[in-house]
Amino acid sequence: MINIMLTYEDGQKEKLCLDTPFLIGRSADCALRIQHWRVAKTHVRVREDDAGCHVEDLGSLSGTRVNGQRIIRYGPVQATDEVIVGPCLIHFTTSQIDRAAQDIALHSLCDDSFESVRLIEPESGRFRREIRKSLHLGLIKVLDLRRTDIAALTTTGLRDYARACARQVSVELLESLSDAEREELIELVVSEAIGLGVLEPLLADPTVSEVMVNAFDEIYVERGGRLTRAAAEFSSEIAVRGIVERIVFPLGRRIDELSPMVDARLPDGSRLNAVIAPIALSGSCVTIRKFPNTRPTLEDLVRNNTLEEPLAKFLSWCVVHRVNILVSGGTGSGKTTLLNVLAGQIPTTQRIVTIEDSAELQIAHPHIVRLEARPANAEGRGAITIRDLVKNALRMRPDRIVVGEVRGAEAIDMLAAMNTGHEGSLTTLHANSPRDALARLETLILSAQSGLPLAAIRDQVASAIQLIVQQARLPSGQRIVCAVAEVCGVESGIIQTQIIARTDPMLGKVRGTGLMPAVFDTLNLSVDCAIKDWFTCP
To answer: Which H or E element spans position 359?
Structure first.
């Protein structure tokens, strides 16, 4: 049995009590009929299970919104959730506790001073979540009403101000909690309102390398290459959306129904990807790839067994002597980290221009220009692609061009730069092997609709790319360089490569294959004999 409170646009209210499951719509078959042009014949299905009440939009044109966000499926519905169907605002309640929680939230939204409201009876996690949700909504309302007063505050000042506002809540509202629990709850609410909420301690934890929010109450973290579920959770879907919007807005990006996906970065350089409804069915999904405060060096990669020392010296030698390098690998295999380290080997007398979709590289170099792509605005204008940036970079007198990742039509411009006087350029590419990397590079160039025949494309690739470094992520979570391939030209229309280093399954480490890298002869420069011996004596 579901208790329903309907509030119409003209202010009229109506209370109903219906058995589940039932339909909401204009049709006579619907238990709750709403005669309005914005309501479909069968608009929403409402059902109930052990977890609570659930609502499902049945494909209506105007859609169904919960807390201002368009949904396909949503549940369990809380008493404080605002469900909008056509001209109606609907609240669902199923128990006395839910009705009490609804009264708290509605009172905090209508009263800026957060006057006291006594709870009937405290419950476990759900009870605590309802308190957090009501306090969060009320605090947001107060901060919005006083926006002109807080605009000039610093981050620390704003947090102190928000904390003072949250403490205006009567002690009676939180009388079931201890002083320590009360302070902890206030800190969580303040963090959700103006910071990153429950993500802040996770991002501050040096053992956490990735944070994944599958739903507001389902958060996973990666530690040591293994995924575990975190005990933390947000108070509501609204809190997650608010955090994402606060991150992307200063970067000139947007996330809404028309653009429900976004890539952005946090102030510390960590990479963020967010996906919201309607394409994320379980609610806003956020993935944050953390980057360490201290960037690893080539010596660090050798120390943690990502690279063998002779191979590290070889790659450093290649970077210094302007060998064009492509770093390939799967998602999360460490491509960006390796690219960052290799770019740090570029001599300080040279000028670097970096080009990225979302700026992540932090290269330790005194002369560097960082460029970042820009998405289109709400009118579909103003987009600046990586391809545009690569073309512009050629006019910026770069000694080296570093593209964070080649993933589209910019591949042809990157190859043109490598073939026209910008040797020693670096980039990354998603691929499972060096041979797959070349095939994917050809596909990306063809997708640019350049009109070049495949034979010409392969000639361009073979003359531009000299070395392919393959990264891999082991089941244990460790990232390693598993293979190094050298591009040797084109023969019979096929790009020829030779694997000069690969992982030895017996030793569990990368060893030379016995082939001397042709780049030594091409550049005709002196090389450390230890490096030559490492390649020729597998």
So the answer is: none
